[in-house]
């Protein structure tokens, strides 16, 4: 069940949008989903992030590192935040993410951060967006000092941070595209990828998760230009779950030799959609039991076509485990001698099977 919704404004993408990336950060999680369902067990995790902002123009023009985002600091801060997962009594950014519709998942407020992959990704996104804020504030302070030195003591002072944010919101394209524009924190987006390779016993490649989080602004104060930090909130635009490498053995194929002995099939499941909605909670609540059920039931099957097997799996995932939609990929490693894998991919929804009955 979602909490009461709030009206949220998401700034448009600036004309100039640059990014800082960290790829395959090895982050041992102090507590994470455990394949044996043991609480509080540490797990390996590979994380990647792409932090997008407007922009690196000033740093490039001046060739000045003080005007850029420090990805070394980003890594160190992220490593520290992950190391202390669960030790804080509250992780506001991770627990108070909202959807683009302005809703929030109540069940995430009391969840163990380490046991919900969405909250782990929220910690990563908050770390990236927080560093963007810090860097932009530092650049503004430097600009103010330099400007003050050029002006006399009677000159007018620069505008407040809130006014600067409001000006960019009203005309973000022209502000971000101007030559030498400094880093701006009105628009911030952090795309996060997580891979937990040992989260599932029956999936060789484990659990993958991806999310895209941006800064949103509560619209109640937009008219007055009041854009102080307390009126900002992380908005999850989209998210994706992938379960990869469910290896099963079953009779599959039309050729006579394929009807004699079971062969390996590799099944992958993908779920994606808008962030922070009910469908994501369903995946989080069911993926352990769902993966086990798919593996067990596929091994009892005897289909002639890969399409029929993929549809069978999709029916289990949607009808038996109440997931709204799934993309199923089924591959046969042994079908073709000089092809590593061959197979099909289908996308099916609950509505598809309900109409078929």
TrEMBL record:
Q: What InterPro entries does the entry give?
A: Dihydroneopterin_aldolase, FolB_dom, GTP-CH-I_C/QueF
Task: Give every Dihydroneopterin aldolase/epimerase domain span.
Answer: 241-348
Q: Which Pfam families match?
A: FolB
The UniProt entry, under Gene3D superfamilies, shows: 3.30.1130.10
Under which pathway is this protein filed?
Cofactor biosynthesis; tetrahydrofolate biosynthesis; 2-amino-4-hydroxy-6-hydroxymethyl-7,8-dihydropteridine diphosphate from 7,8-dihydroneopterin triphosphate: step 3/4
This entry's Enzyme Commission designation comes to 4.1.2.25
Write out the catalysed reaction: 7,8-dihydroneopterin = 6-hydroxymethyl-7,8-dihydropterin + glycolaldehyde
The record's annotation in SMART domains points to: FolB
Q: Which keywords describe this protein according to UniProt? A: Folate biosynthesis, Lyase
- Family in the record: Belongs to the DHNA family.
According to UniProt, the name of this protein is dihydroneopterin aldolase
- Origin organism is Aspergillus lucknowensis
For this protein's source organism, the top of the classification is: Eukaryota, Fungi, Dikarya, Ascomycota, Pezizomycotina
């Amino acid at each position: 069940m979602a909490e009461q919704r709030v009206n949220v404004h998401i700034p448009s993408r600036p004309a100039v949008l640059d990014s800082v990336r960290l790829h395959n950060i090895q982050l041992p999680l102090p507590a994470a989903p455990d394949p044996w369902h043991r609480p509080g067990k540490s797990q390996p995790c590979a994380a990647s992030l792409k932090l997008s902002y407007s922009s690196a123009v000033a740093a490039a023009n001046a060739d000045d590192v003080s005007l850029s985002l420090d990805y070394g600091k980003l890594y160190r801060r992220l490593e520290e935040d992950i190391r202390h997962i669960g030790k804080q009594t509250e992780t506001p950014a991770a627990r108070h993410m909202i959807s683009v519709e302005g809703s929030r998942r109540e069940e995430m407020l009391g969840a163990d951060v380490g046991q919900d992959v969405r909250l782990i990704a929220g910690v990563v996104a908050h770390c990236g967006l927080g560093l963007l804020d810090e860097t932009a504030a530092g650049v503004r302070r430097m600009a103010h000092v330099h400007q003050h030195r050029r002006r006399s003591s009677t000159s007018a002072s620069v505008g407040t941070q809130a006014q600067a944010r409001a000006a960019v919101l009203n005309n973000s394209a022209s502000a971000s595209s101007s030559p030498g524009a400094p880093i701006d924190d009105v628009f911030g987006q952090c795309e996060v990828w997580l891979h937990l390779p040992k989260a599932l016993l029956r999936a060789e490649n484990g659990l993958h998760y991806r999310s895209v989080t941006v800064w949103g602004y509560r619209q109640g104060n937009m008219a007055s230009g009041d854009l102080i930090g307390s009126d900002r909130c992380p908005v999850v635009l989209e998210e994706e779950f992938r379960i990869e490498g469910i290896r099963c053995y079953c009779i599959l194929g039309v050729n006579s030799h394929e009807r004699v002995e079971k062969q390996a099939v590799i099944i992958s499941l993908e779920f994606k959609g808008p962030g922070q909605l009910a469908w994501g909670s369903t995946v989080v609540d069911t993926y352990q039991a769902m993966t086990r059920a798919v593996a067990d039931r596929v091994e009892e099957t005897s289909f002639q076509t890969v399409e029929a097997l993929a549809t069978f799996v999709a029916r289990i995932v949607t009808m038996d485990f109440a997931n709204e939609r799934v993309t199923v990929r089924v591959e046969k490693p042994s079908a073709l001698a000089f092809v590593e894998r061959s197979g099909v991919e289908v996308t099916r929804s609950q509505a598809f099977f309900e109409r078929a009955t």
